[in-house]
Specification:
- This protein is of the alpha+beta class and 350 residues long.
- Among the domains are: 103 residues, OB fold (Dihydrolipoamide Acetyltransferase, E2P), CATH 2.40.50.120; 101 residues, Leucine-rich Repeat Variant (Alpha Horseshoe).
- It is built from 13 helices and eight strands.
- Helix 2 crosses helix 3 and helix 11 packs across helix 13.
Length: 350
């Protein structure tokens, strides 16, 4: 698969943030993936409230980071507790933490309404994770209509709090984006799908709307696919989201009901759109797409022809004609095209 204009899935092993010049040598900073269950399990207290009065309180002992000692500062914050997700606290709590002077992916607390993950240390609390200390939150409890109570299921309740930020009409675009950056950690569930649908209904900002539309299609919501395809055909997707939406079409669409929606892309004069559509048909792998795939075998673009062959080989499952790799296809393209043109023609005449 060509790497140009491709983006990775929602759950890369490491999210590379930047390359920094650290003492002695240059390193590239990687932030480990978030795992909600681990974050919850390591927390003695998960609390929602107002984080205020964040300040530097002086120098801290150096932090060991990948074998290097980094100079660091100590910070403190006050949090007014509104409610707890796990554990018990009331009133105000003091939170202390340390950050290196060089950015290595560690995050301090942010002011505002936050959900914070803590453990107790003597007379104060410290964040459980240097990378994921807090997230935006809403002060009201998330709705539980038609959902189980999840009493004691703290991970499920943490997820529900995050989804409330996406769904809410009162949270800001920036707060929603902060949650969306780690939505790879969410399960593909009805609860997540419903929250994203509600979030889409509650936002008008184009970049955010298009991200949510792509997320819904990625989770199998076929209703949003025509809107995504229209954004691509009319070239009205934002520059950032166009790449994301193309990725969703070519990698996440697997429902045979999508075939009619993909046909306008196959007829586009934009090679990139035809490639995305035929790659989607490869993932769908349904005989209903035979006419479209047969036409794609004659496309002027090599990548479109390649994925048409891959799709037909998956549909037919013929021994000896399994889907070729790109180099194999390139070396024997005419043989593959002739075989699958003959096969698809015979199938359509039945």
């Amino acid at each position: 698969m060509r790497v140009e204009n491709r983006v990775k899935s929602r759950a890369p092993f490491l999210i590379v943030l930047s390359c920094l010049l650290l003492p002695l040598d240059a390193q590239c900073v990687g932030v480990p993936n978030l795992h909600l269950k681990d974050l919850e399990a390591n927390s003695e207290l998960i609390v929602i409230g107002e984080v205020t009065t964040i300040k530097t309180v002086g120098s801290a002992p150096p932090i060991d980071f990948r074998g290097q000692e980094l100079q660091a500062d100590a910070y403190s914050a006050i949090m007014a507790v509104r409610r707890t997700v796990k554990g018990f606290a009331s009133g105000q709590i003091d939170i202390h933490y340390v950050l290196p002077l060089s950015f290595v992916g560690y995050r301090g607390l942010q002011a505002g309404t936050r959900m914070v993950f803590l453990r107790r240390r003597q007379d104060h609390y410290v964040p459980v994770s240097a990378y994921y200390s807090d997230f935006p939150a809403v002060l009201s409890s998330p709705p539980t209509k038609d959902l189980p109570s999840n009493v004691g299921d703290y991970t499920a309740n943490v997820l529900r709090e995050m989804l409330s930020v996406i769904a809410s009409s009162s949270t800001s675009t920036e707060q929603k984006w902060e949650i969306l950056r780690i939505d790879y950690a969410f399960p593909n569930s009805k609860e997540v799908l419903d929250a994203f649908r509600e979030g889409l209904a509650n936002t008008k900002e184009p970049n955010l709307r298009q991200r949510l539309q792509g997320e819904l299609v990625s989770m199998g919501d076929i209703i949003e696919l025509p809107h995504v395809i229209d954004l691509l055909l009319t070239n009205t997707a934002t520059p950032d989201q166009r790449i994301w939406l193309l990725y969703v079409v070519e990698n996440r669409v697997k429902d045979s009901r999508a075939i009619p929606n993909l046909q306008p892309l196959l007829g586009s004069g934009d090679t990139r759109l035809r490639e995305a559509a035929v790659e989607a048909l490869w993932h769908v792998a349904d005989p209903a797409a035979l006419p479209d795939l047969a036409a794609a075998l004659r496309d002027p673009d090599e990548q479109v022809r390649f994925y048409a062959v891959r799709a037909l080989s998956d549909i037919a499952n013929e021994p000896g004609w399994g889907g070729p790799g790109e180099s194999q296809f390139r070396d024997h393209e005419q043989e593959y095209l002739a075989h699958w043109q003959k096969w698809s023609s015979a199938q359509m005449q039945r």
